[in-house]
């Protein structure tokens, strides 16, 4: 499977216009690629399309429109795209009782040596991202991949050959046979690139973001009918180091536009990303 390039990413304004259609397709696609292993582990298998969605959503949240900045996001997320004859997955350790999270995670130390894929009579051990591993503790989310030999990849395509996921840990064991839509979807990964889940309209021209208000050091940019971003020009520092006077300018403009929406009968709400690299305020309309 080939890594993503900026050619695979539409301009942010085009994505905004067609986001709902792609989101519905991604939800259905992920449902076919989610596999439970017992009552604690779930694997979501990634491909170019799930990663493309993640990158576009990240760019949307962060307001990233510059192609070089998009390319930087791809350099990070492409690590999750499976390579030739590989399956790539995000492993979730799901613990719903808050007080049990750390004890349950501690019980699963060594899980990185316990997950495998069965292809016929052969085992393919999961290769965990070693950068996530610590000697005395584990996290609730892990990235892993299964690297198949040419013979194993060919056997995966043969419906007569049984395929299963399993975990054999001293304190946790489970096995799940892969069949039906799940196996057919994963077989595509071993053959090459999947078909795009959503083809953005070729005749859509990305217009420059509409600047609603520009005042002093701040401006309001309309990204969609129900979404406005109030930002500084040039970009502000993160919220943690944002000067008080600039914060007040951003807030004043956000309040003004929220009041305008309320007068029009729309229900605005404010969204902030405290850890974003540049402080900005997002105004959205409740649906």
Which secondary-structure class do the elements indicate? Answer: alpha+beta
**Which residues form runs of ≥5 with pLDDT under 50?**
none
The level of helicity is 25-40%
Q: Quickly count the helices.
A: 7
Amino-to-carboxy terminus distance: 38 Å
> How many separate structural domains?
2
* Extended strand count: 14
As a whole number of angstroms, the C-alpha radius of gyration is 23 Å
- Following the backbone from N to C, one meets helices and strands in this order, namely HEEHHEHEEEEHEEHEEEHEE
Overall body shape: elongated
Structure description:
The chain is α+β, with helices and mostly antiparallel strands and 287 residues long. The chain has two domains: 6-191, no CATH class; 210-285, 2-Layer Sandwich (HIT family, subunit A), CATH 3.30.428. It is 32% helix and 28% strand. The chain has seven helices and 14 strands. It has a five-stranded antiparallel beta sheet with strand order 1-2-3-7-6. Strand 10 (210-215) and strand 11 (218-224) form a beta hairpin. Helix 1 crosses helix 2 and helix 2 (48-62) crosses helix 3. The longest helix is centred in the first third of the chain and has 20 residues, at 12-31. The two termini are 38 Å apart. 24% of the residues are buried. The model has no long low-confidence stretch (mean pLDDT 89).
Write the layout of secondary structure elements.
Blueprint: H1 12-31, E1 34-37, E2 41-46, H2 48-62, H3 67-77, E3 86-93, H4 101-107, E4 115-119, E5 122-125, E6 127-128, E7 141-147, H5 150-156, E8 163-169, E9 172-177, H6 180-191, E10 210-215, E11 218-224, E12 227-232, H7 244-263, E13 268-272, E14 280-285
Antiparallel strand pairs: 1-2, 2-3, 3-7, 4-5, 4-8, 6-7, 8-9, 10-11, 11-12, 12-14, 13-14
Helix pairs in contact: 1-2, 2-3
């Amino acid at each position: 499977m080939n890594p993503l390039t900026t050619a695979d990413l539409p301009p942010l304004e085009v994505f905004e216009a067609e986001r709902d259609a792609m989101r519905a397709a991604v939800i259905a696609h992920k449902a076919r690629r989610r596999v439970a292993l017992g009552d604690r582990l779930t694997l979501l298998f990634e491909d170019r399309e799930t990663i493309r969605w993640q990158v576009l959503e990240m760019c949307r949240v962060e307001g990233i429109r510059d192609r070089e900045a998009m390319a930087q996001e791809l350099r990070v997320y492409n690590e999750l795209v499976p390579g030739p004859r590989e399956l790539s997955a995000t492993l979730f350790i799901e613990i719903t009782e808050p007080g049990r999270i750390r004890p349950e995670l501690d019980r699963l130390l060594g899980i990185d040596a316990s997950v495998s894929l069965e292809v016929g009579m052969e085992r393919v051990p999961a290769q965990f991202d070693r950068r996530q591993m610590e000697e005395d503790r584990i996290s609730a989310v892990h990235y892993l991949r299964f690297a198949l030999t040419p013979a194993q990849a060919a056997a995966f395509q043969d419906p007569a050959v049984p395929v299963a996921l399993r975990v054999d840990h001293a304190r946790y064991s489970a096995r799940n046979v892969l069949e039906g839509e799940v196996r057919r979807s994963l077989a595509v990964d071993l053959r090459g690139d999947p078909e795009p889940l959503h083809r953005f309209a070729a005749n859509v021209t990305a217009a420059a973001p509409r600047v609603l208000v520009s005042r002093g050091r701040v401006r309001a940019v309309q990204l969609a009918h129900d979404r406005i971003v109030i930002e500084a020009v040039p970009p502000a520092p993160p919220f943690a180091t944002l000067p008080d006077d600039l914060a007040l300018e951003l807030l004043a403009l956000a309040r003004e536009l929220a009041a305008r929406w309320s007068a029009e009968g729309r229900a605005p709400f404010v969204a902030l990303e405290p850890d974003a690299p540049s402080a900005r305020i997002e105004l959205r309309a409740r649906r």
